[in-house]
């Protein structure tokens, strides 16, 4: 009988790693692999499961090994789960009666409850040791009787990733689970300090994982039922296995090898997406970048997003914080990504850029917000497409230049006004262009049920889908877009069953509205489209309407 062990997933969110449901981070799987190699069959609990049933901690035997992974360095808003707070982490540590209590992940860099606050390093009471460096390598060292610290070694990561792949079956979101795949760690601009606020340079200059290692892990995950993958644990996918330098030249051949290996390893996959792309790479090497993007599109699935860390459109802020690209360069990068990625497959764009802004950086003035607004206006008037804009307040970490050199809280009013401007003047018209009425979104997973249910597709920054019907949680549906909000769409299940829809849902059929919905409800059932049109007229989604019997 195997020894007792438990992994507690407090969720992570870093510049180059995401692990909030429906995502599962690589840290969880490699830690599981280490435990497995040491004779443990690890259990697995998420912070959300513990919130629902705190008594689960009391069932942990005294001789167990408990490993918690937690930490947020780029806070956001979450639907699928909420990362563990420092208070919760300490409470969990104090309630565990096991003899071995370890914690690792980005929590080691510090903690702040939200953006706009300094992240403070403090002792994490209740835990015996902090796993420093690579959590899996640190755990391996500890279990061998040495200090709980570890350096990255991809030969070991490859092995542990395969050994720990089965842990995904214990995740509450399984099988609707996105496996965040690690391909690289570290920043190509680390020698020049990188962006003033970013924690990725803490990992040093880039170390790249082998194609064979990634492929072997995908094979193991696929054998355990994984269908959704994102090559997201990397600072810039275009520079995978590229040579050195601040802006390495992309190697399209290596991108092809990587993505084709994932396809071979998981022939039944449903999602293959990316995350970070450095706009500076694109403008320094436009030809090779386009070739690399074309290789990604050849092998990925549509609806993909290349997240650009723009941070600011103010040249003074860019210079003061060693940011990656000027506004003109970011515009050029947006244009190049749209040139190869804006074409639609299955009704949605293949690959679009996303933009990140950070507020509170050194050099920021009231003029900064005017320049940020001007940039968004420029993108909108260009006709180019951007999937989403993230605007967050700085969370500076000890060891970064921004920790002591920042303007936290100085421009709170301007921050709120800029965010509101972006939502109403940019996000709303943009989402209408990206997902026009009539767009069919396939395989929307229902995450929250109610009179207005919410779901998302599996993917990188999937759009939030509101469905004005009570849907079965964790069910999967196809849905047609019928209306838009700044950050979400309203949709109806496909086919749209006119004779079965509630009055509240009928009104969302484009061109119907509340008054006409009442007339439709009275005259149901309709025998077909012509019968329906006699009352409602034509709609943009006529070809998706169904008229099955009411009873």
**pLDDT < 50 stretches:** none
What percent strand?
15-25%
CATH fold-level name of the domain at 1-180: Rossmann fold
Q: In one word, what is the shape? A: globular
What's the end-to-end separation, in Å?
56 Å
What class would the helix/strand composition place it in?
alpha/beta
Share of helical residues: 25-40%
Radius of gyration: 24 Å
Number of helices: 16
- In CATH terms, what is the architecture of the domain at 1-180? 3-Layer(aba) Sandwich
CATH class of the domain at 1-180: Alpha Beta
Can you count the beta strands?
25
On the 0-100 scale, what is the average pLDDT?
Answer: 95
Largest sheet: 7 strands, mixed
Describe this protein's structure:
This protein is an alpha/beta fold and 551 residues long. Among the domains are: 1-180, Rossmann fold (3-Layer(aba) Sandwich), CATH 3.40.50; 495-551. It contains 16 helices and 25 strands. Strands 1, 2, 4, 5, 6, 7 and 8 form a seven-stranded mixed sheet that branches. The protein is globular, with a radius of gyration of 24 Å. The chain starts with a strand and ends in a 5-residue tail after the last strand. The model has no long low-confidence stretch (mean pLDDT 95).
Task: Name the features.
seven-stranded mixed sheet; 551 residues; globular; 16 helices; 25 strands; Rossmann fold; alpha/beta; 32% helix; five-stranded mixed barrel
SSE blueprint and pairings:
Elements: E1 5-14, E2 17-18, E3 23-24, H1 26-37, E4 43-46, H2 47-52, E5 65-72, H3 86-95, E6 100-104, E7 129-133, H4 135-143, E8 149-150, H5 154-163, E9 178-182, E10 184-185, E11 207-208, H6 211-223, E12 228-233, H7 252-265, E13 271-274, H8 279-284, H9 286-299, E14 304-311, H10 315-320, H11 327-341, E15 344-345, E16 348-349, E17 351-359, H12 366-382, E18 389-393, H13 412-434, E19 440-448, E20 453-456, E21 464-467, E22 476-484, E23 488-493, E24 496-497, H14 503-506, H15 513-523, H16 529-536, E25 545-546
Parallel strand pairs: 1-4, 1-5, 3-9, 5-6, 6-7, 7-8, 9-12, 12-13, 14-17, 17-18, 21-23, 24-25
Antiparallel strand pairs: 1-2, 10-11, 15-16, 19-20, 19-22, 20-21, 22-23
Helix pairs in contact: 1-4, 1-5, 5-6, 6-7, 7-9, 9-11, 12-13
């Amino acid at each position: 009988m195997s020894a007792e062990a438990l992994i507690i997933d407090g969720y992570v969110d870093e510049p180059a790693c995401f692990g909030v449901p429906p995502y599962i981070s690589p840290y969880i799987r490699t830690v599981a692999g280490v435990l497995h190699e040491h004779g443990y069959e690890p259990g697995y609990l998420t912070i959300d499961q513990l919130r629902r049933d705190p008594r689960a901690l009391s069932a942990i035997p005294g001789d167990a090994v408990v490993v918690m992974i937690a930490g947020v360095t780029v806070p956001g808003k979450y639907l699928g789960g909420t990362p563990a707070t420092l208070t919760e982490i300490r409470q969990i540590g104090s309630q565990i009666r096991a003899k071995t209590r370890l914690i690792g992940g980005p929590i080691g860099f510090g903690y702040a409850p939200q953006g706009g606050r300094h992240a403070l390093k403090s002792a994490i009471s209740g835990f015996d040791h902090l796993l420093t460096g690579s959590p899996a390598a640190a755990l391996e060292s500890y279990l061998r009787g040495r200090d709980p610290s570890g350096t990255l070694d991809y030969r070991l990561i490859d092995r542990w990733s395969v050994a720990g792949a089965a842990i995904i079956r214990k995740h509450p979101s399984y099988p609707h689970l996105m496996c965040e795949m690690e391909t690289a760690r570290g920043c190509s601009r680390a020698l020049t300090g990188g962006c003033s606020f970013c924690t990725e340079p803490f990992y040093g200059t880039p170390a790249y994982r082998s194609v064979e290692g990634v492929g072997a892990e995908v094979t193991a995950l696929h054998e355990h039922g994984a269908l959704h993958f994102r090559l997201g644990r990397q600072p810039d996918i275009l520079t995978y296995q590229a040579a050195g330098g601040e802006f390495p030249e992309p190697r399209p051949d290596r991108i092809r090898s990587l993505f084709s290996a994932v396809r071979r390893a998981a022939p039944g996959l449903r999602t293959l997406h990316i995350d970070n792309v450095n706009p500076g790479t694109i403008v320094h090497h436009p030809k090779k970048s386009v070739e690399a993007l074309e290789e990604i599109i050849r092998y990925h699935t549509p609806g993909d997003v290349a997240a650009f860390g723009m941070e600011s459109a103010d040249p003074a802020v860019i210079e003061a914080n060693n940011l990656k690209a000027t506004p003109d360069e970011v515009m050029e990068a947006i244009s190049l990504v749209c040139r190869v990625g804006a074409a639609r497959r299955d009704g949605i764009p293949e690959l679009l850029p996303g933009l990140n802004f950070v507020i509170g950086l050194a050099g920021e003035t009231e003029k900064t917000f005017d320049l940020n607004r001007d940039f968004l206006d420029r993108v909108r008037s260009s006709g180019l497409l951007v999937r989403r804009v993230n605007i967050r307040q700085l969370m500076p970490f000890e060891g970064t230049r921004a920790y002591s050199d920042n303007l936290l809280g100085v421009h709170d009013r301007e921050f709120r006004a800029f965010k509101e401007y972006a939502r109403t003047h940019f996000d709303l018209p943009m989402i209408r262009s990206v997902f026009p009425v009539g767009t069919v979104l396939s395989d929307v997973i229902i995450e929250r049920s109610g009179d207005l249910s919410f779901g998302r597709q599996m993917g990188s920054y999937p759009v939030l889908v509101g469905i004005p019907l009570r849907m079965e949680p964790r069910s999967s549906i196809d849905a047609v877009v019928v209306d838009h909000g700044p950050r979400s769409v309203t949709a109806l299940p496909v086919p749209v069953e006119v004779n079965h829809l509630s009055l509240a849902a009928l009104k969302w059929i484009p061109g119907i509205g509340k008054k006409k919905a009442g007339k439709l409800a009275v005259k149901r059932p309709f025998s077909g489209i012509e019968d329906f049109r006699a009352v409602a007229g034509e709609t943009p989604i006529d070809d998706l309407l169904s008229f099955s019997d009411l009873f």
